[in-house]
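Deviations from the work plan: none for this task. Representative record:
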Amino acid sequence: DSGVTQTPKHLITATGQRVTLRCSPRSGDLSVYWYQQSLDQGLQFLIQYYNGEERAKGNILERFSAQQFPDLHSELNLSSLELGDSALYFCASSERDRVNTGELFFGEGSRLTVL
Amino acid sequence: GQQLNQSPQSMFIQEGEDVSMNCTSSSIFNTWLWYKQDPGEGPVLLIALYKAGELTSNGRLTAQFGITRKDSFLNISASIPSDVGIYFCAGQNYGGSQGNLIFGKGTKLSVKP
């Protein structure tokens, strides 16, 4: 158990819909990272937050948005869903003094299926 | 963008055998890391390397940061069934807008008892 909590574990929805994925980092961690894992693209970095502020942005589509709240939990919002958005979405956190070292603690992921 | 080439894509070995996998990049990284992912789980950090030429061990695992900073390898000695999973290399550059990890596509390891 990494200490990073993600909900829901599984989500099935239809094209055009909107979903929200939730993440709580490990106690004491200020950074949250979102990754998308698909069979053909592997693990792709989406976005990073540090203490409520966006720190780095990767290959995140305009239809996707995220935020980190004052209690440090984060939400990833996916809208106008397409079949190709079906993937595992991972949240990760890092220790306060190890931010940007690449040392991440990953949650168990949220598996999104778009039908 | 930056890409990592990880090989082999998959390996089928007998329990007790040693395993070697590697990762190369066309650009340099300041940090190389190796993660393992079990089915239904998120990746777990195995080893992190911070200096070119660095050789680091974690139990039966040994990893090296290439001198050119463009490659890394991971060795597993005397494999056991619980070594089964997908191993990912990852490169990290810090500072500016590059503060995120680039992952390889993974090496899927199967161990026959």
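Chain A touches chain B through 25 residues (CB under 8 Å).
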